[in-house]
Fold this sequence. Notes:
Blueprint (H helix, E strand, L loop, with lengths): L4 H4 L1 H16 L4 H16 L4 H8 L4 H8 L14 H10 L11 H11 L3 H10 L2 H6 L7
Helix pairs in contact: 2-3, 2-7, 3-6
Organism: Rhizobium rhizophilum
Protein name: DUF2267 domain-containing protein
Pfam families: DUF2267
Amino acid sequence: MPMPLEYRQASADFDAFMKDLVTTSMLTSSHQAYTMLQAVLQVFRHRLTVAQAIAFANALPPVLRAIFVSDWDVEAPPKPFVGRNELMKEVRAFRHDHNLSTDTAIEEVTATIRRHVDPATFERVLRTLPEEAGDFWSLGSMS
C-alpha cells in the first residue's frame, strides 16, 4: 500500500491550518495560536473517554490528531462538560504564563478546524459523542 496522501502532506497541511488559525484569531504568531489550539483540544479531550477521544482524533488531520493525544493521562477520569465560560477559564489556565488565548478561542479553533476536516466525517463522529461535544464544536456566534 502506498503512503497515504494525508501523511505525505501533513506538514504542509498543518502549516496552512496554523496560518488560518492565526488569521482567524488575529493573534500575532503561530506560537500563540499553537498554545491556544493545544489548550482547546485538551480541554475538550478531558471530557471524553479514551474510546470517544480516539474516535474524535481519527476525524482530525494527522498533526492535529497528534496534538490532541499528546501528553495524555489516559487513567484520568473524564471531566463533566460545563458551561462555555467555565471551559474558557480552563483554556486560559493552560500554560498560564504563555497563553494568550482570545476570549473566543473555542469558537476560533472550531471554525478553523471545521475548514480543515472532512465535514461529513467530523459530523458523523460528533453524533456518536455526548450531546455536549457537539455543542463544544458548534460555530455559535462565528457562523
